[in-house]
Amino acid sequence: xxxxxxxxxxxxxxxxxxxxxxxxxxxxxxxxxxxxxxxxxxxxxxxxxxxxxxxxxxxxxxxxxxxxxxxxxxxxxxxxxxxxxxxxxxxxxxxxxxxxxxxxxxxxxxxxxxxxxxxxxxxxxxxxxxxxxxxxxxxxxxxxxxxxxxxxxxxxxxxxxxxxxxxxxxxxxxxxxxxxxxxxxxxxxxxxxxxxxxxxxxxxxxxxxxxxxxxxxxxxxxxxxxxxxxxxxxxxxxxxxxxxxxxxxxxxxxxxxxxxxxxxxxxxxxxxxxxxxxxxxxxxxxxxxxxxxxxxxxxxxxxxxxxxxxxxxxxxxxxxxxxxxxxxxxxxxxxxxxxxxxxxxxxxxxxxxxxxxxxxxxxxxxxxxxxxxxxxxxxxxxxxxxxxxxxxxxxxxxxxxxxxxxxxxxxxxxxxxxxxxxxxxxxxxxxxxxxxxxxxxxxxxxxxxxxxxxxxxxxxxxxxxxxxxxxxxxxxxxxxxxxxxxxxxxxxxxxx
Length: 496
Known about the structure:
With 496 residues, the chain is α+β, with helices and mostly antiparallel strands. The protein has six helices and 29 strands. The chain has helices at 6-30, 32-45, 52-96, 101-145, 241-244, 489-495; strands at 146-153, 159-164, 172-176, 181-184, 191-195, 202-207, 213-218, 222-227, 271-272, 277-280, 286-291, 297-302, 307-311, 317-321, 328-333, 339-344, 349-356, 359-365, 372-377, 382-387, 391-396, 405-408, 417-418, 425-428, 434-437, 443-446, 459-464, 473-477, 481-487. The strands form seven sheets. The protein has a five-stranded mixed beta sheet, with no helix packed on it. Strands 1-29-28-27 form a four-stranded antiparallel beta sheet. Helix 1 (6-30) runs antiparallel to helix 3 (52-96), helix 2 packs antiparallel against helix 3 and helix 3 packs antiparallel against helix 4. It starts with 5 loop residues before the first helix and ends with a helix.
């Protein structure tokens, strides 16, 4: 009578196990329809304030999640059995080479390597499947409350910064690496004015709190203050962006420099070439500038590691704020108090207090492990800081020893903004995404992005304008465009 070898017996046993598991999978699939019908019957019998259609949609989504996890669980069991079988086989083979130390080492290495590969495969499969489920669920939510309304196209290089005027008429301002700043009609997307006074990249733009004046910072080591007058065009009905620019689905401005010559709109808009006031004294790139409360003084931040405080009327340097160990990246002023916060590549941000004319105190905060790209005030008593270490931290001005909330992301964070009324933080990322969080660190939404809409390259800055009915959030990036979004904030907060 022939004797069955150990290897053929193991193969037969493995085949039987796989057959039993395939039967269990078929059994699971065959009962899905019955289970779904039973759950729907139970759902209709329960009391709930949600509409039946919405409840049914939620049930379908969670059923999909359950099926995915069921399949992952079964695959997990099969992979574990394969690992056990492999280990048993290697152990049996190891007895044959009992006298050879070299063979033992080789077998141990092989077993460890194979086990590691299978373990990694399991982790990858699990992460990919679950993240796909969660992403699809959140994307459905985001599309309902976050919609792209308008694109502002006309710059010939990346856009570093953008801001919205605080006085009438309300317009959008952008600062670009193409040496220009532009003012745009929010409703029509038309360029209203172009500022050509700088000899280098325009790195930031901020508007005076009560007058029609703009403050721009530049790579030419200066900051300019210039007056503007614009006339708003007649608003046009908001149309689908995908129908406005059908050719852009196939054009990626990040790779096609030829697109420079194809932009027509802003060429015929009025321009200003001379500044009302030029602020000089920095020995390096001026990376950012902002107005202090009241608009009589401005602060500038530079790569020369200093921030300067100027008098607007006389253009004189009032204070030079030194102490950072590396280049500054951003500066921001408090909306109602004489406070300034500066950010730096030295992984810190500093709070400068000018409320007492006789004492100019400074506090240093070391909550990040990489470049602090921006730190901004909220209307209340908070500071929010973003960094290249992929985190955003929320601080309390009354006790800034440690952050009250930390947001961890998967990409470096650039110039953030916080909405005035609801305190929603908009995070522009290096990976082309824009995410929304509340002050406690809860993620609210991710702005939709695809080949048809959204940013195609790094997103540099975000700015809120909650009073505008059509667009209440603006973003800009190195794809040479600014985008106006409509965020349904009540719906966003309701879903939280």
